[in-house]
Amino acid sequence: MHGKGTFDVTITPQQTADDAPVARMTLYKEFHGDLEAVANGEMLAAHEPLTGAAVYVAIDRLTGTLHGKAGSFLFAHRGLRNAEGQSLDVVIVPGSGTGQLTGITGTIGIEIVEKKHYYTIDYELRG
User: Fold this and answer.
1) Pairing mode, strands 85-92 and 54-66
2) Looking at domain 2-125, which CATH architecture does it have?
3) CB 3.0–4.6 Å: which of 5, 23, 46, 82 could bond 53 by disulfide?
4) Which residues 6+ apart lie within 8 Å of 71 measured at CB?
């Protein structure tokens, strides 16, 4: 199955120790389109100023409907950037689906165009 739409995100920096090597943020997202849901999560991010390399990881819990099926699931992000390019992997955590989304697996794609966030979701529901 395939879905798409837009989402709004609010990123709120959190307090860390002054010498912490990473930044920590809370995430709040509202999804629109085939996925009508909200997600709450946390992100850790770091970069190396001398080389430009950067990394972030995040975990979100999403609650809402996907193509009209109600439930929740967890998804995890891993983003990397270095001189050779960048990559982003966002996966639905297998076994985390609840309600009518029990058994969901798949991936989520994120694209940002002119500061607007778009998602695609490719998934299977086994139940």
Assistant:
1) unpaired
2) Beta Barrel (2.40)
3) 82
4) 63, 65, 97, 98, 99, 100, 101, 102, 104
* Token pair belonging to 103: 């058994």
Three-class DSSP category at 87: strand
Q: Return the bridge partners of 32, or none.
A: 6
Confidence at 119, pLDDT banded by 50, 70, 90: very high
pLDDT in tens, 30-76: 999 999 999 999 999 999 999 999 999 999 999 999 999 999 999 99
70-109 pLDDT tens trace: 999 999 999 999 999 999 999 999 999 999 999 999 999 9
* Closest alpha carbon to 67 in 29, 127, 10, 124: 124
Could you give the CA distance from residue 81 to residue 83 in angstroms, rounded to a whole number?
7
Classify 22 as helix, strand or coil: coil
